[in-house]
Amino acid sequence: MRISADFTVVPDDFAKAAAPEYRTGGVPVISFPFYVDAIDPEVRYLHWALTDPDSIPVCGFEWIHWTVANLPIDALMYDFNDSHALSIPPDFSRQMPAMIPEAVQGRNSSASHFVGRENDPAVIMRYNGPQPPDKDHEYHLCVWGTRRPLGGLNQGFWLNELFHALRDCGESPDQGGIFVTGRA
Questions:
Q1: In angstroms, rounded to a whole number, what is the distance separating the alpha carbons of residues 112 and 52?
Q2: Contact indicator for 72, 89 with CB cutoff of 8 Å
Q3: Which pLDDT does position 95 carry in this prediction?
Q4: What is the CA radius of gyration of the chain?
Q5: Residue span of the structural domain in which 114 resides
Q6: What is the pLDDT of residue 113?
Q7: Do 51 and 63 touch, CB atoms closer than 8 A?
Q8: Signal sequence: where (predicted)?
Q9: Is pLDDT above 70 for 117?
Q10: Can you give the pLDDT at residue 116?
Q11: Are 13 and 182 in contact (CB under 8 A)?
Q12: Using an 8 Å Cβ cutoff, are 166 and 46 in contact?
């Protein structure tokens, strides 16, 4: 599986410099677009996690920005420029619940009791854009593909639950990932 985006630095609309209309509670909530290509033909569901390993020295843990599970690939459109690549469009995180209710999104790190400042589901169970406080950070988007949906995951699952479900799914998930930079 191959993951790509039309940028290497997360554009302002999806990160720290997002306009007020692209924020909820001060947090950027418009998810960035990306593409998934070279998928194993047996894969029917996608799952992903967007995390910030560079946050560890800042807050003591890897910041979780977005998790998704059980997204049927049949619900996605192919990229107009590449008939082999599935397109995850901009603002997909906010649109997905209405468009594809069987897919679920997990909690991000804004839901952590260590952060403890937010309880709005639109912020804690959706895309939470990069806002590095100290320097540019490198973000990792990892996508897995499976033949069947993962069991036991409901809206608001935690990242560790996604990892357990992937481990216990009875197959070797197809996997791909990219790194993108978020500006401080």
A1: 15
A2: no
A3: 97
A4: 15
A5: 2-182
A6: 83
A7: yes
A8: none
A9: no
A10: 66
A11: no
A12: no
Question: CATH number for the domain including 6?
Answer: 3.90.280.10
Q: What is the pLDDT of residues 139-180, one digit of tens each?
A: 999 999 999 999 999 999 999 999 999 999 999 999 999 999
Cα-Cα-Cα-Cα dihedral of 43, 1, 123, 109, to 10°? 110
This model's pTM is above 0.90: yes
Residues in the chain: 184
Number of Cβ atoms within 10 Å of the Cβ of 106: 25
- Residue 88 has φ and ψ, to the nearest 5°, of -100, 110
Q: Hey, is 85 helix, strand or coil? A: strand
Rounded to whole angstroms, the Cα distance separating 25 from 40 reads 39
Hey, how many other C-beta atoms are within 10 angstroms of the C-beta on 146?
23
Asked whether the beta carbons of 28 and 90 are under 8 A apart, the reply is no
Structure tokens at 61: 């843990």
* CA–CA separation, 80 and 86 (whole Å): 9
CA 78 to chain CA centroid, Å, is: 18
**Domain count of the chain?**
1
